[in-house]
Design goal:
This protein is 37% helix and 22% strand. By secondary structure, it is an alpha+beta fold. The strands form 2 sheets. An 8-stranded mixed sheet has the order 4-3-2-6-5-1-11-12. The protein has a 5-stranded mixed sheet with strand order 7-8-9-10-13. Helix 2 runs antiparallel to helix 3. The protein is globular, with a radius of gyration of 20 Å. Glycine binds next to strand 8.
């Protein structure tokens, strides 16, 4: 047999081995879900989960889209557009708290079940960055557009520039300016990044996140939310995860990608989120960010199990399925704020 034929035969056998091992991993995960029974949270498909209480109206809209037969991606976009457009939500889109120069800069990303993804970062003047991210995914050969280039792309697609700094946000910024102490503020008024994950009736997973980032950040700062693998990650064979909280800590540890990998190894969504939070805690012991560090993850897997876990108390997320309707779920946490 020629070397080339030997190589092809070996490669083919190798890939049989791999796919068998992969199939076994899938079976193992299914078995683990069964063995866990009701000890973990499990929903019926379709299932939508979103961070914080602004996830409730977002879930409601995404649910409506799914009921109308729209795709997971369309449902994600429509859902997270609700807090993006709400001037009372000071951590996302219109009404988001500005950076230290008084400019509202937005980050968002979206990902579908075929691992297509799109993202925008440091985008100014556009109310719905999630829609621009979706167009980056669908209409360009790229994954991520940033700053001026993202804005130019948005304008070419018919988006219009709006003033996103509301009176409320400007007043808060001017107050902060009096002392100008930089300290990221997390968990403000029970909202932060909105991250949404869903599994549709056919078992296909999609996700998105959108944020105005940390209040009073340096101009140009980009957080975890537009970074695939940090703020959001999914693998349609396994599940999806998304983050909220201090983006720097999530980027340092490739947070959401790791949660998905932990689920691939057989952990439940809650267990995977917990292990990732523990890892972030261990990596940040003695770090200057520790004083105000908060991170939280939500995750769901292919079997409809879902969960969340945060470093500090106060994190919750909205869950919507047919059986339980739309409701809030408190996440478990490692420690209380005062600890
Ligand atoms: N998690 C949002 C941010 O840090 O920008």
């Amino acid at each position: 047999m020629s070397n080339r034929r030997k190589f092809i035969k070996k490669a083919a056998l190798g890939s049989i081995g791999l796919s068998t091992a992969y199939g076994m991993a899938q079976d193992l995960r299914d078995e683990k879900t069964q063995a866990r029974g009701k000890s973990e949270l499990i929903g019926t498909k379709p299932l939508i989960i979103s961070t914080w209480n602004h996830g409730m109206p977002a879930n409601e809209m995404a649910w409506k889209y799914l009921q109308e037969g729209k795709s997971g991606i369309e449902a994600i976009e429509a859902g997270v557009k609700i807090p993006e457009g709400d001037p009372e939500v000071t951590t996302v889109g219109y009404g988001g708290f500005p950076d230290r120069e008084g400019k509202v800069t937005l980050d968002a990303c979206i990902m579908d079940h075929q691992s297509n993804c799109g993202s925008v970062s440091f985008l100014q003047g556009i109310k719905h960055p999630i829609s621009v991210a979706k167009m980056v995914m669908q209409d360009t050969p790229h994954v991520m557009l940033s700053g001026e280039g993202a804005l130019q792309f948005a304008l070419s697609k018919g988006f219009v520039v709006e003033d996103l700094l509301t009176d409320k946000a400007e007043k808060a910024w001017r107050k902060w300016m009096e002392a100008s102490k930089y300290k990221p503020v997390i968990n403000i008024e029970n909202h932060d990044t909105i991250s949404m994950l869903l599994i549709d009736k056919d078992g296909n997973i999609s996700g998105g996140c959108t944020t105005s980032g940390a209040a009073w950040k340096m101009h140009g700062r980009v957080g975890d939310s537009p970074i695939i693998g940090a703020g959001l990650f999914l693998d349609n064979e396994v599940g999806a995860a998304a983050a909220t909280g201090l983006g720097e800590a999530v980027i340092r540890t490739a947070g959401s990608a790791m949660v998905v990998e932990l689920m691939r190894q057989g952990k439940s969504p809650r267990e995977a989120c917990k292990e990732m939070v523990e890892r972030i805690y261990a990596k940040h012991k003695g770090h200057r960010d520790m004083e105000y560090l908060q991170v939280g993850f939500i995750a769901l897997n292919k079997n409809g199990e879902y969960g969340g876990y945060s470093l500090r108390s106060g994190f919750n997320y909205a869950v919507h399925d047919q059986q339980g309707g739309n409701r809030m779920q408190d996440a478990e946490f490692k420690m209380a704020w005062e600890d």
